[in-house]
Specification:
By secondary structure, the chain is an all-alpha fold. The protein is built from twelve helices and no strands. Helix 8 runs antiparallel to helix 11. The two termini are about 40 Å apart. It binds fe (ii) ion (FE2) (2 copies).
């Protein structure tokens, strides 16, 4: 895009009823939290009170979250770029909040790591090949392609990896697991509060993904098959990573002398499968997402 042909807000106005404008409004209203205001002092005491085995058991999930939030922050820009080239003003308005949300998510996890004393610990050892395939390769590949190619295929692929797999399947399952373990144990109130905020933000991000994929499918039904194919292509890596976390956790539990945390790893596996199938179901050959009610109804289905 070297030149602009004209400007929407000069010829007319923003489309106030546009689903992405409504989502932008929601983001401004609900996304006001500040990671710097979260009190991690109890988290610090809690972490210090854990046995070394229990401490280690928290690290793989943290390693997954931190890198995941950093990756999605670094990789969202090409989506804004592609939609700007297409003149999708309301989508771009929403994406300005999206990137800010992700920046806060990165900050929140990094502050927590710092607060509990693991800020300088390299956790990349917990990224197995499946994790790397998704976060180190598939995500940036699909997103960066958008700089040169904003075809329906390229946009669907990017939104599938980013919104439906990374956010809608992996991140959502990660938050769920984290809550299951640490809420039950009465630990890490600061981080749990942060994750509640994150979850709200992610809800909007997934709505963006559903909207973006569905509007393309509505224009041409053949793209539905493409979406399903991309989801299935990534699935072995999703479950491969989850199985690795499960194995790691079970081994740690067996080796530990003292271990008070209650972790049901099978529950995590079932949750991931459920999330993956839900994301698939949220796109259909005919769903209406051109009005915000339709989009919200679709996103709320579970
Ligand atoms: Fe995030
Ligand atoms: Fe997100």
């Amino acid at each position: 895009m070297v030149h602009h042909d004209g400007f929407q807000t000069v010829k007319a106005t923003i489309d106030w009823e546009h689903p992405m404008f409504k989502l932008y409004e929601k983001a401004k209203r609900n996304g006001k939290w500040n990671p710097a205001d979260i009190d991690f002092s109890q988290d610090q005491k809690d972490f210090a009170s854990l046995t070394s085995e229990e401490k280690i058991s928290a690290l793989p999930l943290v390693a997954g979250f931190s890198a995941g939030e950093e990756a999605v922050t670094l990789d969202i820009l090409p989506m804004a770029h592609a939609l700007a080239r297409q003149g999708r003003l309301e989508d771009v308005l929403f994406l300005t909040t999206f990137m800010h949300d992700e920046a806060k998510h990165v900050e929140m996890f990094s502050r927590w790591q710092q607060a509990v004393g693991i800020g300088q610990m390299d956790l990349s050892v917990f990224h197995n090949d499946h994790y790397k395939r998704i976060f180190y390769e598939a995500l940036p590949e699909a997103m960066n392609r958008l700089y040169a190619d904003d075809s329906p295929e390229a946009v669907i692929r990017a939104a599938t990896v980013y919104n439906m797999i990374v956010e809608g399947t992996l991140a959502e399952s990660g938050y769920y697991t984290f809550r299951q373990i640490y809420k039950k144990a009465g630990l890490f109130p600061g981080l749990l509060q942060g994750i509640d905020y994150l979850n709200m933000d992610e809800g909007r991000h997934i709505q963006f993904g559903i909207y973006t994929i569905q509007r393309i499918v509505n224009e041409d039904e053949r793209y539905y098959e493409l979406f399903i194919r991309y989801m299935d292509e990534l699935w072995p890596h999703v479950i491969g990573y989850v199985d690795y976390l499960t194995e790691l956790g079970k081994r740690q539990q067996q080796l530990a002398r003292t271990y008070a945390l209650e972790i049901d790893y099978d529950l995590l596996r079932h949750y991931v499968i459920k999330q993956f199938n839900l994301r698939k179901k949220q796109i259909s050959r005919t769903k209406r997402v051109d009005v915000v009610e339709g989009l919200e109804k679709t996103a709320a289905e579970s």
